[in-house]
Amino acid sequence: MAQTDKSVDALNSFLQGEISAVETYRQAIGHVSDAHRTVLETCQQDHEQRVEALRDRISRLGGTPVEGSGPWGVFAKLVQAGADSLGEKAAIQALEEGEDHGLADYQRDMDQVHGEARRFVRMELLPAQKRTHAQLSRLKRTLH
C-alpha cells in the first residue's frame, strides 16, 4: 500500500506540473505572433493529453487526482506574465525554462513511482515531455 501511495503522490506532483504547463501555454498563446502560435498550441495540446493520462492513471491506482497546479502554477503564471510584458522572445524563453523544469522533474522523480506506473512514466510521459521540450527549443532557436 505504501508504494501505491508514493506512486500516487509522485504522479500527482507530475500532474500539477502538467496543469501548470497547460495554464502557462494558454496565457502565452495570446502574446505570440500567428507564425509561432501553432507550435505553442501543439505543445499545449501535448500537455493536455498528459494531464488526462495522469488523471486516468492516478484514478486507476485508487488515488484522487489533484485539481489545480498548486504553488508551481502560481509561480509559472508570474514568470510568464513578466515575460509576456517583455515580448514574444521572452515569453518563449520562459516556456522553454518551464519545459526544462518539467523534464528535470520526470527524470528526478521517476524512481518514486513503482510497478506499471513507473513504466508509464518512463515509456510514455518522459518521451512525450522530451518531444515537447525539443519542439519549443527548435522554436526558440528560430527567434535568434
Question: Which helices and strands occur, and which strands form pairs?
Answer:
Layout: H1 2-29, H2 34-60, H3 70-86, H4 88-109, H5 116-142
Structure report:
This protein has 144 residues and is an all-alpha fold. It has one domain (2-142): Up-down Bundle (Ferritin), CATH 1.20.1260.10. Helix content is 84%, strand content 0%. It has 5 helices and no strands. The protein has helices at residues 2-29, 34-60, 70-86, 88-109, 116-142. The mean pLDDT is 89.
What is the tally of helical segments?
5
Q: Quote the average pLDDT.
A: 89
Query: What does the largest sheet look like?
Result: none
State which percent range the strand residues make up.
under 5%
Which CATH top level class fits?
A: Mainly Alpha
The secondary-structure element order is HHHHH
Which residues sit in consecutive blocks of at least 5 with pLDDT less than 50? none
Oligomer: single chain
- Molecular shape: elongated
Distance between the termini: 51 Å
Gross CATH architecture: Up-down Bundle
Fourth CATH level, the homologous superfamily? Ferritin, core subunit, four-helix bundle
Structural class: mainly alpha
Give helix % range. over 70%
Number of domains: 1
CATH topology: Ferritin
Number of strands: 0
Radius of gyration: 15 Å
Protein name: DUF2383 domain-containing protein
Concise description?
This protein is an all-alpha fold and 144 residues long. Helices cover 84% and strands 0% of the residues.
Descriptive key words:
144 residues; mainly alpha; Ferritin; 5 helices
